[in-house]
Amino acid sequence: MKKRNFLKLAASGLAAVSASSLATGLAGSQETSVKNLASIDLDLAPISSAEKRQRIKKAQQLMQQQQVAAIVLEPGAALDYFAGIRWWRSERFTGLVIPAHGEAFVICPFFEQPSIEEMTDVVTDIHVWQEHENPFSMIKSLLAKRHISSGNIGFEHSVRYFVLKGVTEQLADFSHVSAEPITRGCRMYKSNHELQLMHKANEITLAAYQHVFSQLELGMTQAEVKSLVNSTQVALGGSKPWCLALFNEASAYPHGTKQTQRIKNGSCILLDSGCSFHGYQSDISRTLFFGTPSKQQVKIWQTVREGQSVAFKAAKIGKQAGSVDDAVRDFYHSQGLGPDYQLPGLSHRTGHGIGMEGHESVNFVKGEREILKPGMCFSNEPGIYLPEKFGVRLEDCLYMTKAGPNWFTQPPESFDRPLGKLAKLELSS
Q1: Residues with Cβ within 8 Å of residue 378, at least 6 apart in sequence
Q2: Are residues 401 and 413 in the same domain?
Q3: CATH label of the domain that carries residue 152
């Protein structure tokens, strides 16, 4: 696609604001002002403390049903999800303990207490340890005060070994089990509010693409385009933006190569990007052609677009998540691609779960037996890669409703209209 055609992209349903509203610099030799951007209404509240307290109650209900006495959470998405604490992992333990009965509590270093208290009003029972003390010894006594002295204690798979070892050495009468059925049982099913925040994040990323498409020029490097995508998302209200910009032969490898690539006539341009809005993620991929694409490029693009449709139609309530991946690979095999993960073809899973993290359980991947239910969210990205030539990936995220899947963003109509558009958000009553 030539530059003049980028300027004639189909409307995405997003209005324009004045050129003076936002501006940013493009890193590198070229400077571009972020002008005429799609207007983004950011008047959406973040998840409230009341909602987080309800999440803790739901976790406790699941724990009681599954006979888990308590779960221990380290900093990460789950700590933010339940307590609103956005912290980092270091050699000093900071964590949240949710008991099956009684009040949840936080343990942190003494000198970090003011910062922790500033972040949360969800968990007010905060206990501190000094540098010479063992923080894990506090958990046993605090659970005992809640009349919990034995049973199963749960840890997420990402909890570090020294934390698991430190806790279990203190709790000799407990058995350690996975906390995933508890945390995943809460986080995997998004509320209406969560869906609204994810929809907004996707709106920001799609609007950023609309602007960036109009700025692509001969000679631009992958680094320059990546910088432009990220700065545009920030200007539109997103945070923590990220971008993969893969040109030419680099597009044949899902995460690119170290080689420097520039836009030239006939370039295949693969962009994979997202951002965060109030802690919830977007993830959209687009593949477009600068200049006139070859017949092979058009055919592969159209096959990937059909692959998205196959996946969308296969994502039925009550079906196993792995069946979506199976349907796409069967279709690709019928087109002479694959089979399975072989190249040319689809070398990665069809999609991944998404929410507060860009990649969450469950995935559209072979063998995944998790049943699709309302509230689950996934990427739909059945790319096709031809090593040493080019690759095509189209990615839009979807959410499951009682009636089946809905798009956050609708995929592009055709290779010469590569943007797509924002879908209407359908919320459950």
Answers
A1: 315, 321, 351, 352, 353, 354, 363, 364, 397, 398, 399, 400
A2: yes
A3: 3.40.350.10
pLDDT at 5 over 60: no
Q: Are residues 124 and 9 in the same domain?
A: no
Q: Which two tokens stand for residue 249?
A: 């032969």
Whether residue 232 is found in the same domain as residue 128: no
Same domain, 271 and 348: yes
**CA gyration radius, the chain:** 24
Q: Measure the CA–CA gap between 158 and 76, rounded to whole angstroms.
A: 9
Terminal-to-terminal C-alpha distance of the chain: 43
How many domains is the chain partitioned into structurally?
Answer: 2
Strand order in the sheet with 95-99: 126-129, 105-109, 95-99, 70-73, 151-155, 174-178
Domain containing 203 equals 3-39+191-422
Provide the pLDDT for residue 258.
84
Q: Could you read off the pLDDT of 175-203 as tens digits, one per residue?
A: 999 999 999 999 999 999 999 999 999 99
Residues facing residue 98 across a β-bridge? 71
- Residue for token digits 């206990």? 127
- pLDDT tens, position by position, 376-396: 999 999 999 999 999 999 999
- Same-domain check for residues 177 and 317: no
The stretch 214-240 carries a mean pLDDT of 97
For residue 392, tell me if it sits in a domain: yes
Predicted confidence (pLDDT) per residue in 239-290, tens digit: 999 999 999 999 999 998 888 899 999 999 999 999 999 999 999 999 999 9
